[in-house]
Amino acid sequence: MFVALAAIRDRGVTVLLVEQRAQRTVALADRTHVLANGELRMAMTPADADDTDKLIAAYLS
User: pTM for this one?
Assistant: First the structure.
């Protein structure tokens, strides 16, 4: 699935992906957003989203 998503992204198509396994999706993303209880908790660049501590803090805040 992630190979297909990368091919779609490479064609310039916008994809909204909802996924619990954040580390799998960070490599594909131009932007990562963390939602919890219907609220935007954090918007991150790929570099920030690659930081596991920042992701955990966003989920738990």
Answer: 0.68
